[in-house]
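Structure in, sequence out. Go:
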């Protein structure tokens, strides 16, 4: 579970995995969600946290933070798997 849900692409090549995350964040838009392309839930947490911190709209920040929390939960649960 940890290799699949927590490490994801970083298990193979750490640098490539994090470059993948940076590209997904840069390409993301509200109508083009790139977060599901990431193989690591912690990467998705970073993505959603980035979007949360980038908005000035409280409702949008809550929505993005909720997405981040879902991936925190998956990551935490994987550690107990």
């Amino acid at each position: 579970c940890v290799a699949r849900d927590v490490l994801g692409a970083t298990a193979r090549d750490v640098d490539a995995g994090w470059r993948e995350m940076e590209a997904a964040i840069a390409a993301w838009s509200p109508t083009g969600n790139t977060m599901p392309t990431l193989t690591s839930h912690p990467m998705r947490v970073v993505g959603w946290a980035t979007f949360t911190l980038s908005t000035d709209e409280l409702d949008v920040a809550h929505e993005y933070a909720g997405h981040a929390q879902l991936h925190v939960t998956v990551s935490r649960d994987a550690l107990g798997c």
